Amino acid sequence: MNTHTTVADVTDRIRARSAAARAAYLERLAAMAARTRGSDRMGCANVAHAVAAMPSSDKFKVVAERAPNIGIVNAYNDMLSAHQPLQHYPDLVKDEARHFGATAQVAGGVPAMCDGVTQGLPGMELSLFSRDVIAMATAVALTHDMFDAALMLGVCDKIVPGLLIGALHFGHLPTVFVPAGPMASGLSNSAKSKVREQAAQGLVGRKELMEAESAAYHAAGTCTFYGTANSNQMLLEAMGLHVPSTAFVTPGGPLREALTREAARTVLGYGTTLDGHAAKARGVVPPIGRLVDERAIVNAMVALLATGGSTNHLIHWVAVARSAGITIDWDDFAALSHVVPLLARVYPNGSADVNQFQAAGGTGYVIRELLDAGLMHEDVLTVRPGGIREYTHEPQLVDAALRWEATGASKDEAIVRPATAPFSPTGGLQLLQGPLGRSVIKVSSVPDDRHVIEAPARIFDSQEDLQKAFSAGELERDLVCVVRWQGPQANGMPELHKLTPPLAVLQGKGFKVALVTDGRMSGASGKVPAAIHLTPEAAAGGPLAKLRDGDVVRLDAPAGRLDVLVPEAEWAARPLATMPEALREANGLGLGRDLFAGMRRNAATAEEGAPTWL
C-alpha cells in the first residue's frame, strides 16, 4: 500500500524543517556508539563501584566475559495503581538476562505522580513539569554509562513521555519500553461520570461519590478509560517501542510475565518469533535515537488521531520529537487530522473501556487498518526485526509458550471499525486559530451539535472561582467559560479536569457551554467543547488577557476558528489585564511549588511542548 499523500507530505515537511537538528543529533549518536564498552573504557575504581553490589557471577560476566549489561529505569511506586506491578519486574528481567549470558541492573528510579490524586489540588501544578524531572532522572540513571541497552518501566501520563525524552538523550542505546497493563474493569466510566455530575449538583453526598470512585479505581493497573496513560501505550505500540501488543494485557497473570521476559530478550537482540519458536538471535536492536525518526513520530501522531487519544500529547510528543532532533507543530497534527479517520470509540469517546477495546481488536487492529490504508509508514525500524507489521498480531500463551496470532476482523464494531467504515472520516483533534491565539480541541467526544458555540464570555482567574460561581447558580445560561492564568509560565499548566462535571451539568440542562483556557484538560476530558492549550498564554502577554466579561466568543471546530466578536479597532486598542498579585504569589508557594520557580520562568510555549530544558 502506498503512503497516503498527506501523510507523506507532512512527513517530508517535518524532515525538511528538522534536517539540521536531526543531522546534529545523529552525529552525536554515532560518536557515543563508537566508544568502547563502559567497563573497558572506564577506570578500575569506576567499574568496581558500578558492580560492587552485583552477585559475583554477574561481576565476572560484566568485567571478564564482557557480557551485555541492561540498565533498568523504573517508575515503580505503590501510590500509582499502574506502577505498583513494576515492583518485581527487575527480578524477572535479571533472571531472563542471565539465561542469555547477560546482566541487568536497576540504574535508577524516577518519580511518578498520579494526576488522579492531585486533580484540583496545588500538587497538580507540578504535574506537567514532572515530565521534565522524569527525563532528567532518567538521564541521571543512564549517566553511569555502564549499559549496552536499556529497559524503561513506566506507564502513566507524564512518566512515559519523560522516560522517552530521557532515553532519546541516550539515543545510542537499544531501548524497549515495558508497561504493566490496565486494571480489570470495575464500575463503568459512564456510570462513574454520572455520579460525579450528581455530586456536582448536590444530589448525592460524599459517601455515594466515594463508593462510585472506589468501584471504578479498585485494583493494580492503569485506569481503564482512554486518557493520557493509555494513549501513551497506543503511541508506543505505533512507534514499535514495545514488545508487540503488550499495552493492554492486564497485570499479574502468566501472559504479562511472559511479555516482560520477552522485553528483556528483545533488547538483547533475541526474541520469540511470532509463531512461537524458542528465543534465538534475531539481529541487533536499532538504537532508539535512530528508530525514533520523523516517520515513527508521524506514525504516533496518526495513531493518536485515529483513536481520539489524549490532547496532552499535542504537548508531550512535540517535546519527545524535539529530543530526537525533530520539529513538529500543531499544523502537522491538523493536516493529519483531516485525512486520518476515527477508528475507535473508547471512553470518553464512547462507552467501552480499554479492556473492551483490547477484546475487540485493540492496538493490533488499529495499526493494521492504518497500515493497510496507507496512513502509517511501514518502512520503519522497530525493536523487533519483523518491523511494524509484527504489531498487528495479538500475544497468546499456548502450552506455556508465547506466540502471536494475526488480528482478525473487529470483534465489536461499536468499539473499533475498519478504515473503510470509520466512526468519522477525520481524526479526533482539531486546531483552532483566531484573535485569541492558537489552541486545540478534542472533538471526538463532543456531540456534533456542540461543535459550534457562540455565547458571551464569563472570565475566571482560577478553576476554583468557576466552581464557586456554578455552586451559586450564576452560570445557568449560554456562556463561554474562560479560565486564564493557567499556562506553563503562570502556574505550570495544571489539568482542569475538575471543571468537567459542572460544565457537563450545564450542558445537560440544554445550555450552550464551552471552555476556553490556556491550561490543560485531562486526557479523559469529555463531551463539553473545550479550546485548550491556548498560546500565547495570558501570563506571557497573550491576547486572552484582553478578554472581558460579556465579550461574545465563537468556537467553530469545523472551521478551525476561535473568534472574539469585538470590533477590530476596539480589540486592538484594549489593554492587557495582568495576573492578580495574590494569585501570582499563591501559585509559587507551598507543597514544593517554590522549588519549581525556575521551571515556570524557563518554560516554552505549549505548542513548543512546554519544555523547561531548552
TrEMBL record:
Cofactor(s) the protein needs: [4Fe-4S] cluster
Q: What GO MF annotations does this protein's record show? A: 4 iron, 4 sulfur cluster binding; metal ion binding; phosphogluconate dehydratase activity
**Gene3D superfamilies given in the database record:** IlvD/EDD C-terminal domain-like
Cofactor note text: Binds 1 [4Fe-4S] cluster.
Task: Name the residues that bind [4Fe-4S] cluster.
Answer: 156, 223
Keywords (A to Z) from UniProt: 4Fe-4S, Carbohydrate metabolism, Gluconate utilization, Iron, Iron-sulfur, Lyase, Metal-binding
A UniProt-annotated Pfam family: ILV_EDD_C
Entry keyword annotation includes 4Fe-4S? yes
Keyword Transferase in annotation? no
Q: Which residues form the Dihydroxy-acid/6-phosphogluconate dehydratase C-terminal domain?
A: 415-610
Could you say which residues form the signal peptide?
none
Residue intervals passing through the bilayer: none
Q: Name one GO biological process term.
A: Entner-Doudoroff pathway through 6-phosphogluconate
Pathway annotation: Carbohydrate metabolism; Entner-Doudoroff pathway
What EC number(s) would the UniProt record show?
Answer: 4.2.1.12
HAMAP family, per the entry? Edd (MF_02094)
Per its database record, what is this protein's job?
Catalyzes the dehydration of 6-phospho-D-gluconate to 2-dehydro-3-deoxy-6-phospho-D-gluconate.
UniProt lists the family membership as follows: Belongs to the IlvD/Edd family.
The molecule here is called Phosphogluconate dehydratase
Which organism's genome codes for this protein? Pseudorhodoferax soli
